[in-house]
Every structure is written in structure tokens, then in C-alpha cells.
Amino acid sequence: MKIAYKWHRRLGWMLAPLLAIQALGGAILLWMQPLPGPQESPAPIEAWAQAIDQGLAELAQRYPTAKFEYVNLPGKVGAPVSVRLLASESSESGWVDVDPLDGTAGVLKPDSSQARTVLYGLHERLLLGDAGIWVLRTVAVIALVLVFMGLRVWLRLHHQPASTPLRRLHRLIGPVAILPVAIMLFTGFMLRSPEWTSAALSAWSSPAPAKPADAAPPPSGPQTATLGQALAAAATALPEARPIRLYPPRNGQMRVRMRGDEWHPIGLNNVFVSTADASVLRVVRAAEQPLSVRYLNVVYPLHIGVMPDGAGLPGALVARVLWTLLALALTGLAVTGAVQHFRNKAKAPTTARRPLECQQGQPQ
Fold it and tell me: What is the pTM assigned to this prediction?
């Protein structure tokens, strides 16, 4: 127990700033997302398709060396279609809104001017590129170990009176928030390590039965179909789902991501459309996805605090409040633990003469 207490203190104060930044940044990003609202039924596919084709054509003329990464379809009446543009010779990466009525493209909103984009970069990579992913993986693993070390110390010594108000607050927050905080850390690690998670789930799950080969290979030739035509074809092929995101042509096909009744906010249904004639090549429904993909239907919503559509606006608000309280709890644990550590370091010459007190722990 003494070893657990010692390392809980030593490692905890080192991780405190990163944990607080991640927790508070995640809470801010959560509230920056639009709340769910009533959606058009049915979706205006024809208007979207025309607006997408016109907007992409205009952007191709305006930024001839730029490429779009994907197109997000709106979820509310009158909301614009959003195009994610990658960096070109004349501009940096950013977003462009396309009017869903007349297809006119707005001005480029560069990432450097978007607070949400900067927060995403900080939350997902610490603004360190690929190195930030490894830092966050390490922090998540160590933080999970610290959580269970702290629980072990609390179970052993929680009956002893706390010597300071901060120590008392640390003890009160810890046992209440330990399970949801552990879930948040674990899901965060899974999302930052998708290749490891997919490999582990693929090895653990039983192999899916082999599917029959396609009757004919995808049509080859120059691209004649537009993204708008692909959207219309996908909506017809999977009418029970709603189009959410469109991806650029690749290997002779375009992918339309759609959401049915799954929990994942972007959906796990995919329709693949030929770039040659806009014919539907195949439909991959959410239930047909392998376990290495289906896990996102639970892990991602759990981490970001998304409720199923059936919960409506009240459920979404309750979820956001709860996830915000968890973020504040994690921040509180990090801050109170770090402050106590530095206070103990300042009193080290005095406490060094009292080994019995150290043995009792005086846990945070």
C-alpha cells in the first residue's frame, strides 16, 4: 500500500496538467457541438446533390491545387453543406460552407482561425502531430494505473481523518468518479489507438463467414459520375438510413456514409458507388461490419457523451451535463493531487523525521 501511495503521488502531479487540459478541452468541445434537433423527413437529397456538385465545381476553379477530404451534410433545416478542403499552394486547410439552395460556395475558413479546430488538435494530438498520439496513449495508460492505485489507498485509509480541506476534497471526488473516469480514459486510449484496437478485436472475435464475390468487377474508365449522383444513388439503395458524409473518388468508387438507428453520430453504414456510371457497387450495413469496426458504435459515443436519437434534446442535455461534471471531477482530482504533492515537498524536512506518519500514508 505504501508503494501504491508513493507512486500515486509522484506520477499524479506530473500528469496533472495534461489531464486537466484534456478534460477541460473535451468539455468545451462537447458544448461547441450543436444539440440534436428535428431533422427534415425525408432529407432533401435532390437539393443537396445539386448544391454539392455546383459548390465543388466552384471550389475546383477557385483552388485548382486543393483537394477536398470529405463533405458533411447538414442535419438541420437551412444549414449549409460543409466541405473540408486540404491545403493547397495558395491557402491552408479549412472549411467552406456551400449554400444548400443555390450551391454557391462561401469563403474559406482556415483552421488557424477556427477555435474548434485548434481545440481538436490540442485534444487529439496535443498539437504535436504523430508524437502527440504517443504521448496521449502513455498518459492514458499511466492515468488508469493511478486511478486504481488511488482506489487501493482509499480503501485502506479512507476511515482516517483528512488533514487538509484539499485532501478531504480529493478523497470525496475520487471514489465517486473513479469508474466513469476510468471509462473515459480507456475509451480515449482506444480512440487514439484504432489500429491496435481493431487488431485485438479481429484476433479475439471469430472470423466472419466469407461473402460471395461480386458478380462483376467495378466499372473502369474515366470519372463521369458526380458526387451528387453518388449521393442520390446511395439514398435510393439504403432508404432507411440518412446520408451524413461523402468521400472523394478512390479506386473507381465513391463512398457515402449513412446513419440508421445506430448510436454512432456519423453512422456505420456505407454505400459504394461507381465513379463511371453512378451505379451502386455494394452496400455495407452497420450490422454487417466486423467487430473491429462495430466497437465504435459504443466506444466513440461513450467518450464524447452522445445519446441515442430517441433520447431527444432532454437526454442530450443531461448527457452533456454529466460528461462536463466528469471532466471537472478529473480536473479536480489532478489539481488537488498536484497541490498536495507540492505542499508535501515544501514540508519534507519536517515530515522526514516522522516515518510513522509516512507509513500511515495520510493519503490524498
Answer: 0.81
